[in-house]
Design brief:
- The chain has 428 residues and is mostly helical.
- It has 2 domains: 272 residues, no CATH class; 144 residues.
- Helices cover 63% and strands 5% of the residues.
- It contains 22 helices and 4 strands.
- Strands 1-2-4-3 form a 4-stranded mixed β-sheet, with helices on both faces.
- A hairpin with a 2-residue loop joins strand 3 and strand 4.
- The chain is elongated.
């Protein structure tokens, strides 16, 4: 990719937008408090003092070319702030970090980076670190505010796994964003790949083309036969293979002939970071999304008039959502492209979703004993439509103490049982 074909502005990743929207909407008091917190100068002084104690400040005159390169990269990314570069003491591992101070750029080099990386690779490295600064200062510093809110949640005794997972994904998506900044800075995919592999391995010579083929090969050998579903296991940084694959995919969308694939690529990269939707590993935006899916699910369960006329069934529904409205229950289900198409959501999730949805189905089967057999017949049809028939059958036979033959008979008689419920309820 040539510098001329490179987009000049980095855009915020969709997941980052969703996180900000979630926090602004559902944690508005926290958002307001952290947005107006003004103790920045005290934090800045602590950072400056730590840098003086733990690093060697590289003199601008002694490394004039390095500073000129860094300032050129900052200009490419649209950043205008005084910049200082440091060398970490007693840190042999190759790394670079941004020490954040508003309106000041402080980059710390670790290990023998200046001896290991060539000029193009240094540009990519500097672009990555400067993108951290960009992300925290652009868009009204919303990502910085989100970062501080999540740290506050983790330090609160009430914090739980969903807050930890959200913070983890914030760090992972941040690295994906900054890798794009590195690519923009050097203007060459091979160079961006080389610096990534060198940083991870310590090698002085890297064949970028070979590693790109390695990443493609790994993506093509998933157990389910699908492409690009490598899932990261990293906490703060995705694995090198995944990062290389992510920038390779994103780079392809900068070409005019592939620009229409940008949305698909973003979804692929998200799956590489998030994995399938799961109750056991979910973040705050995902938790909110699953809440809305659950609302849709219950609306579909209550679609028949005879289900809605059951006060016990409706009372149970209101335990989930006090304001639940079943009037539009069928429209999302009929649209296969809808984000609330239950069958599609289950297909794209892990094994926890069929169990979760089966348990909710069973809740409504048992809510009203007077219509239980008809409700079970209806539930079998919904389970078939959502492609969770086997899981639901296991739940129902066990909890209702039914023999498999009895359950099969109810499935066979489902239409007549549902019709009887319609007739009897309309008669009353």
């Amino acid at each position: 990719m040539s510098a001329e074909s490179t987009p000049k502005i980095l855009t915020r990743l969709p997941w980052l937008d969703e996180l900000v929207n979630y926090l602004k909407t559902h944690e508005d008091d926290l958002w307001s408090w952290f947005s107006t917190e003004t103790d920045r100068e005290k934090q800045a002084e602590a950072v400056r003092l730590d840098l003086l104690r733990t690093t060697y400040r590289i003199d601008r005159e002694s490394q004039k070319q390095l500073y000129e390169m860094a300032e050129a990269v900052a200009g490419t990314l649209g950043i205008d702030a005084p910049l200082t570069i440091y060398q970490a003491q007693q840190s042999p591992v190759l790394n670079a970090t941004l020490k954040f101070v508003p309106s000041e750029i402080h980059i710390v080099l670790h290990g023998l980076l200046l001896e290991t990386l060539d000029n193009g690779e240094l540009k990519a490295l500097l672009g990555h670190e400067l993108s951290h600064y960009l992300l925290w200062t652009e868009w009204g510093s919303e990502i910085l505010i989100a970062h501080e809110i999540l740290l506050g949640m983790l330090n609160d005794p009430r914090g739980d796994e969903v807050h930890l997972e959200t913070y983890r994904r914030l760090q992972l998506f941040t690295e994906v964003f900054c890798d794009r900044g590195g690519l923009l800075a050097c203007g060459d995919l091979a160079t961006a790949v080389q610096v990534e592999v060198k940083m991870q391995t310590g090698l002085k010579e890297v064949d970028a083309e070979s590693y790109l083929h390695q990443a493609e090969e790994a993506a093509s050998k998933n157990d389910d036969g699908t492409l690009d579903t490598i899932i990261t296991e990293g906490f703060s940084h995705p694995e090198a293979l995944l990062r290389v694959r992510a920038i390779q995919l994103w780079n392809s969308t900068t070409l005019p002939e592939n620009s229409e694939n940008a949305s698909t690529v973003e979804q692929t990269i998200r799956r590489m970071i998030e994995g399938p939707l799961s109750l056991e590993q979910i973040d705050l935006p995902g938790q909110r999304y699953l809440t809305e899916v659950t609302r849709q699910l219950i609306s579909e369960i209550l679609e028949p008039a005879w289900m809605k006329s059951s006060e016990l069934a409706m009372s149970h529904a209101r335990l989930f959502f006090a304001d639940i409205n079943c009037a539009s229950a069928t429209s999302p289900a009929e649209d296969a492209a809808s984000p609330f198409n239950i069958a599609t959501i289950i297909a794209n999730g892990d094994e926890t979703l069929p169990r979760y949805f089966s348990s909710i189905l069973l809740d409504f089967v048992t809510a009203d004993r007077d219509i239980q057999k008809s409700a079970l017949a209806w539930a079998t049809q919904k389970a078939d439509a959502w492609d969770i028939a086997e899981c639901f059958a296991e739940f129902a036979t066990k909890e209702l103490k039914l023999r498999k033959k009895q359950f099969r008979q109810i499935r066979t008689d489902a239409e007549s049982l549902i019709k009887n419920a319609e007739t009897s309820r309309s008669a009353t």
